[in-house]
Amino acid sequence: MNLKASNISFSYNNKRQILKDISLSLDSNKVIGLIGDSGSGKSTLCKIMAGYITNYSGEVTLDGNKIPDKDFYPVQLIFQHPEKTMNPKWKMEKVLKESWEPPQDLKDTFGLKENWLTRWPNELSGGELQRFSILRSLNPKTKFIIADEISTMLDALTQVQIWEALLKHAKANNIGILAVSHDLELLEVICDDILYFNEINGV
Ligand SMILES: Nc1ncnc2c1ncn2[C@@H]1O[C@H](COP(=O)(O)OP(=O)(O)O)[C@@H](O)[C@H]1O
Ligand SMILES: [Mg+2]
Questions:
Q1: Using a 6 Å cutoff on CB, does residue 47 contact ligand 1?
Q2: What is the pLDDT of residues 34-87, one digit of tens each?
Q3: CA 14–ligand 1 middle distance (angstroms)
Q4: What is the mean pLDDT of each successive set of 10 residues along the chain, which is 203 residues long?
Q5: What pLDDT, on a 0 to 100 scale, did the predictor assign at position 40?
Q6: Residue with CA nearest ligand 1 atom 14
Q7: Is residue 7 part of a domain?
Q8: Is 62 inside a domain boundary?
Q9: Which of 6, 7, 42, 147 is 20 to 30 Å from 126 by CA-CA measure?
Q10: Phi and psi at residue 131, in whole multiples of 5°?
Q11: Residue 15 forms part of a structural domain
């Protein structure tokens, strides 16, 4: 499958344009990196591609078609701060099941411990929460993952474990990934190709 952003332009208000005429194309089974300065608009582009922001100009298409936003959205965004995306009043079991019920072997791949399931979000570390956040995004209907600085706040070992698990699942299931990071070393290891945000943004 192919996820394409064509001529995307956007501003939060009319004063300052954040994105201008951005085009990029992702393919299933490929990991494309996106690197750029803080505050330059990378997360904004991620939100547009994953359907969170809709009042942009340009087009986002999946195999040439507009993405319907009813039902499950096939482009899933994973954020830097997993705790912000979870209901603090839900136990982890419910947080996970909100999207789907991953098989045991996939939970094992992500190193999910059984006793984490009965805890509240604030009883887990950032790395543990991020494992849930990623697993949640891997619903079988997911075709593309937009990973926005997903391992930035994690220690080196956790970062490797999480990326290994995600890459393994994505390759086996033909899922395409856009990996956004300011860590060029990381992107060089995990990506098939790297895009430089200031080169694709016409602002
Ligand atoms: N909801 C918002 N309303 C207004 N401005 C915003 C909003 N979100 C982000 N911005 C601004 O848009 C610019 C780009 O932000 P962002 O896309 O988060 O950049 P990056 O991810 O590259 O650090 C920043 O100047 C930021 O302050
Ligand atoms: Mg960002």
A1: no
A2: 999 999 999 999 999 999 999 999 999 999 999 988 888 999 999 999 999 999
A3: 14
A4: 98 92 97 96 98 97 92 94 95 95 96 97 96 97 97 92 97 98 95 98 96
A5: 95
A6: 41
A7: no
A8: no
A9: 42
A10: -60, -40
A11: no
Task: Count Cα neighbours of 199 within 13 Å in the Cβ-side half-sphere.
Answer: 6
Tell me if 15 CB under 6 Å of ligand 1.
no
Structure tokens at 51: 């359907």
What is the SS3 assignment for 43? helix
Residue at 83 is within a domain: yes
Q: Is the CB of 42 under 6 A from ligand 1?
A: yes
Number of domains into which the chain is organized:
1
What CATH number is associated with residue 35?
3.40.50.300
Expressed as residue numbers, the domain containing 108 is: 30-54+69-193
Report which protein residue has its CA nearest ligand 1's atom 3.
12
Is residue 85 within 6 Å of ligand 1 at its C-beta? no
Task: Confirm whether pTM is higher than 0.90.
Answer: yes
17 CB within 6 A, ligand 1: no
Q: Supply the angle between the helices 126-137 and 156-173 in degrees, to the nearest 10.
A: 10
